[in-house]
Structure formats: structure tokens, C-alpha cells
Design goal:
It is built from six helices and no strands. It has helices at about 1-60, 60-80, 90-105, 110-115, 125-135, 140-154.
């Protein structure tokens, strides 16, 4: 008789453990789905920001392009911190920074153009060749030479 009562008292405990496990599993599934949706929204926002940058550059609006670029960098940083979309690391940083800098340089706003450039990062040779031209036109010959030599290393 005692053996029968012992099995009976274990049954509710097993049911409770099963229910808690099921609830935890459902919670994890809901959380992962919400994360997926949020990630997709952030990536869409980032791509929209990149398109906006392109539109501003097509219009020759360097200031707005630079402003949108700063917002896109923040979005990209959040995406990368979350471990998503790994190819973002150099994409906007290289492609848009140099194009926006060239936009300012074309308008003879060399101080602003130079601010956008970063000669200390690892970028493609094309970036450094283009940056060296901007540095040279801005009168920063030492930085121009440094950027050019980095391009030639590749």
C-alpha cells in the first residue's frame, strides 16, 4: 500500500515538471521569433539608410549623406553587436565614407572630407588611393603619403 501511495505522489510532480518545461520551451520559441523579427527590421532599416545615403549623394547633398551615414553606422554597430549580418563590418564603413568624403572634397570642403577618412583602419587599396588624393588636395601631404603607401602594400 505504501508503494502505491509513493507512486501517486510522484505523478503530480512529474506533471508539474512537464508543464514548466513546456512553458519554458514555448517562451524560448516566442523569444527567438521576436529576436528574428527585430533583426530583420534592423537590417531593413540599415539597408534603407544606405539607400538614403545613395540618394543624398546623387543629389550632391554631402551634409545630409554624412548625417545619414552616422545614423547608419549606429544601426550597423547594433546589428554587429548582436552577432548578425557579419558582412556589414567593412561595407558601409569603406564604401560610403570615401564617397561622402569625395563629395565634400569636390565642393572644396576639405576639412569635412578629411574628418570622414580613417587612415588607421584596414581597408582595401582603393580606399587608401582615393583617401590619399583627398589628403593631398587638403594639403595634408604626410597623411596622403601614408595612405598611398598603405595602398601600395596590398
Amino acid at each position: 500500500m505504501e508503494e502505491y501511495q509513493s507512486n501517486k505522489s510522484k505523478s503530480p510532480a512529474l506533471v508539474i515538471v512537464g508543464i514548466v518545461t513546456l512553458i519554458a520551451l514555448i517562451g524560448v520559441l516566442i523569444y527567438s521569433e521576436l529576436e528574428k523579427i527585430e533583426s530583420e527590421e534592423m537590417q531593413e532599416q540599415y539597408h534603407s539608410q544606405l539607400n538614403t545615403i545613395e540618394n543624398y549623394l546623387d543629389e550632391g547633398n554631402c551634409t545630409q549623406a554624412a548625417s545619414e551615414y552616422a545614423r547608419a553606422k549606429e544601426t550597423r554597430d547594433i546589428i554587429v553587436k548582436r552577432g548578425l549580418y557579419y558582412s556589414l563590418g567593412s561595407h558601409a564603413k569603406q564604401a560610403h565614407a570615401i564617397v561622402i568624403a569625395e563629395c565634400f572634397a569636390k565642393n572644396k570642403e576639405f576639412d569635412t572630407a578629411v574628418i570622414l577618412l580613417d587612415s588607421e583602419v584596414d581597408e582595401a587599396p582603393d580606399y587608401f588611393l582615393r583617401a590619399s588624393v583627398i589628403y593631398k588636395n587638403a594639403g595634408e601631404l604626410e597623411k596622403a603619403e601614408k595612405a598611398k603607401s598603405k595602398a601600395e602594400k596590398y
